[in-house]
């Protein structure tokens, strides 16, 4: 048996105290971690905390109660690629390089457009600030045949992404294959082994978190799969099986509930690591609800909003935003501050304590997170180009909208009249007030025509065309 004198015991306790104090100092001085959670095609009305009454989302509902819920937050655009481009660069849609899922470079050729190399991404910004950076999931901001445009080469130390290539020509990438750090490693998703793809990807994220350096902050971007229509099958066949719904609606609801479950797992993992208290967590969606393989009205996926994915009405671009940061963000707070994806880069720059890249035209909403006042945007502006794959586009597939305070302007096709709505009284955009307020309509038109830049592949006014059955996507070989 070992015996300690009182003096020895005093020395040991003192050393332990100093060790604990030192550890506390390290944790206190470390920059905050950032966890960004992005759903794919999740509608404004598909979470319980945003009014959903059927689909169960207990983890996100709890997170909203513990943090801040935004009512007037907007995606970067109405579909994934241009929306994610706004998020990654802090450049709003009418100034962004990418304004549709693919651009037009000839009458019968639509090409996926990658972010430019001189456009800084959030990953590159935070990596330069000393963050360990991870990305897992859907990137969709690349040329499929040019690995230098993939997430791993755009600021992320660790990047897992599936690669969609078959629709665009070139190499035929398998959607079940996930590429790790470019081509260094790869791993397949086998549906029968997992509840869903997000279950599989969450485990990959855990593997990444287990290997990070504890004394350095991390930025982890989880680009989830759910509830995108391309995930046509999942491993979990038990959820909602007792409901007398069409099979496609049971699948849709299950994908959302399983997404919610993975987020719960992620939060528990951070807690077990001792990192939850020092982590800013943001959850949102890349655009409004889809209606691909299910009826978006079955669960009121867009709530009371008009439109859905590919619309620049509120239903296509207004999305949830939940912000949680223990001890920093007050619990159970709702904000009607008007913000959007272009504000994420400035906000994270402030969180990291670094200078904001000049390219962004967003503003930091960190003051809103902290319960402080922040100047409002003078306006928000969206410019969206439908691609020509399988579509007739007599108006060029060109859609614009803008918000100035309570006013919302919408124009589909530059030769058509601009619609005007008062969102304070008419959030569903049912009563067009354009004839009553021509001066406000004129302000909207000025925004549409002047608050923008030109970019290759997305001509102003769009691309008028008829669908050609032999039309094909082709990968950008440049």
UniProtKB/TrEMBL annotation:
- Which Pfam family is one of those matched by this entry? Sulfatase
Q: Does the keyword section mention Metal-binding?
A: yes
Task: Provide this UniProt record's keywords sorted from A to Z.
Answer: Calcium, Hydrolase, Metal-binding
Domain Sulfatase N-terminal residue range list: 32-354
Instruction: Please identify the protein, giving its name as recorded.
Output: Sulfatase-like hydrolase/transferase
Family to which this protein belongs: Belongs to the sulfatase family.
**Top-level lineage group:** Bacteria
Under PANTHER family, the record lists: ARYLSULFATASE FAMILY MEMBER, ENDO-4-O-SULFATASE
Q: Name one GO molecular function term.
A: arylsulfatase activity
